[in-house]
Amino acid sequence: MLTLFRWLLRLTVAMILLLVTGTVLIWYFAIRSLPDYDAGYEMAGLSAPVEIVRSTENVPHIFGQSDEDVFFALGVTHAQDRLFQMTVLRRAAQGRLSEIYGSSAFALDDLARRLGLYDRAAASVEAQDPEALAALEAYSAGINEWIRQVNEGAMGKGAPEFFLFPDQIAYWQPADSLAILKLLAASSSRSIEEEVLRARLSLAWPEHGPELQSPDGTARPSYSSLFPGARLGIPQSRRTPGHPMDLRGFLRPGMGLGANGFAAASERTAANGSLLANDLQAPLTVPSLYYLVRLELSTGGAIGATIPGIPVLWSGRNQHLAWGLTPAAVDDADIYMEEVKPGASDSYRGVSGWTQFQTERTLIRIMDGQNQTITLRETENGPLVPLIDPGLQDVTPYGHVASLRWTGLSRQDRTISALIGLMRSGDRASAMGAMAQTVAPAMTVTLADSGGVQQFTAGAVPQRAAEHPTGGGMPAPGWLPEARWTGIAQAADLAPGTPSGQDMTIATEEARDGTRYKRLSYLLEDREIHSRDSFIATQLDVVSPAARALLPLVGANLWFSGEPAAAGTPERQRQDALNLLAEWDGEMSEHLPEPLIYAAWMRELQKRLIQDELGPLADDITQLRPAFIDAVFRNRNGAARWCNIIQSAPDEDCTTIARQALDRAILDLTDRFGPQVTSWRWGDLHQARHDHPALGRISGLGWVMNLTQSVSGGEFTLARSGLLGGGDNPYEAVSGAAYRGVYDLADPDSSVFIISTGQSGHPFSRHYDDLAELWRRGEYIGMSLDPDLARAAAVGVTELIPAK
């Protein structure tokens, strides 16, 4: 017995020693990948020394003697802080995520290969202007020199993630940056999701289903009339609610990125200088999609937000010009249903008859799984994309396959030349000229200089015939000539934008009649004179115009319900909730109970309105649609019909449905937080989860890699935080303003900036999350173009020296 005890003791001690040794080794190798910001490096490819001064917040200020050297150093800084993120973005665009994530990423790889993002990006390299091509090549050389330094200096593979994932770091090419830009363009578009949902609604309830998406009563043919015999069958939920962790590569086609941009000319500002504000909304990941940087170019200093992997400032300012970008509400893509020839799967019906698919086979390698060979097929309209939307199979008729035409499939895409030209521009006129080259994504560009402000849309816009069978609103028969695009125009030619004399300009990614656009317009026009602080307050506004519009309408017959009910009863809870909402101004503060009651009520209400008419299809519709609820409760075009439950004998009215929805919402919240209504808090459920797309779900690592914060705001506030919409916590914030900037041209160095996490992607760096709490509180950091100010508080100065 004593011998057994001794052996057990020895084994326990050995296991503890192995665990400690393993932990120390992991820490040692991981910590070696932290870059030394005070080091000097000899690097091939430089023409002269470059200085990288890193401010207190780890924002690199890059000083070089040529633009090529500055872009080279930008590649070095991106690789120092975000190398793993860059390689994952590149893999997502290439369709090679399965090589590190396994079979769970196969669907994303399948789609990226069918879209041909990388091949089309590679074809577009030679279309760039000489300045952009030189910048791309220098940027790639800088990344590759840092990879070489990491390999030769045994610097921990460049990032700790590379110890856990079998990733061989291939050298960077200019096509890699263009491919990530195409992935971003695909992620910006919502067209496909909207087309597919509209078709599914038409099949579920041909007469009135599309009202959910178009409550204005826009007339379109029923989907079954376009494809006789098309049936939704037994609708099944195609969406498994999940976190943006499902992105795997930080971006996913069809995501629908957002932004706000607004500006005021000097005559509308307190300091007599133009103001511009821009926030870029993206999935809340860690690290953030964006990275702050300052570049000293031959045209002067430029400072703002970049995306690691792409050498451009998406939003920022230089000495004379400020700019902001917003995804434009452009229908840039169409789905076509292609009829396959019976008995000959290699042919489809074209305009001129049966036509053979263009076919190519490609291999997707899968870590720890069976490699998959897929067949890529392309039609006259574009590539076949069966997995582009989870609901697409519901609307694909028997004997048909779905193809895609999208502006981003261009092989002569000069968008990156446009963006590089934008940040070199010294005034609005030159900026507009540079952005005329834009293809995808289509963007609303907001500009400000000493002469005023201007706004215009840049990008390719499909032209459709008046007799187009769906107007681009639903999938169309691919063989009909009238369904084909008649051409592609430049957005600026179709709508030149605001006139140069405009003193205020506004942009969001939603239509002009959207709730956030109206709120933004109200806040800007409500003041005659603006300041930097008023622009910051507008950017951080958390009042929900949707709540202000819906609550008086939905609760019109519920506010007064007789004598107070007995304490502790459901009726008393309802009265308490209604009393709170009656005095509420719509502020979606994390510290208040009203936003939580409102959000839960509207969620249950919409579910009850659509569940019986749409069946399981309703499970896919997780985002609130205020315009639809407004139309129902105003009985616009008879929309109150949605309030009647088909399966029940009595005819329910909207007041009854509203009361039942509120009771159900209160019951759910009571189960979560107890019966005291006034003790509930929006922030208890409305939390922003910044998850690491690679390590966030690995047991034991998630608590180190991920960030969770309670936040204010909601889906329809200017400080937007998109809700998950499903799962155990449908109120979780999964997207938001990953970057915010406010640029004051009266005092440029008082301009302010913030990203949602920190500059470094390394979890052992103090700059991994040092900006996250500032972002949560609505605070910013300053970034100056004054070299002396940058050096005064530097946390490190890196010297890059040309190799001998």
From TrEMBL:
Note accompanying the cofactor annotation: Binds 1 Ca(2+) ion per dimer.
TM spans (from-to): 7-30
UniProt superkingdom: Bacteria
GO BP term (any one): antibiotic biosynthetic process
GO terms assigned for molecular function: hydrolase activity, acting on carbon-nitrogen (but not peptide) bonds, in linear amides; metal ion binding
Residues annotated to bind Ca(2+): 195, 331, 334
Family recorded in the similarity comment: Belongs to the peptidase S45 family.
Protein name, as recorded: Penicillin acylase family protein
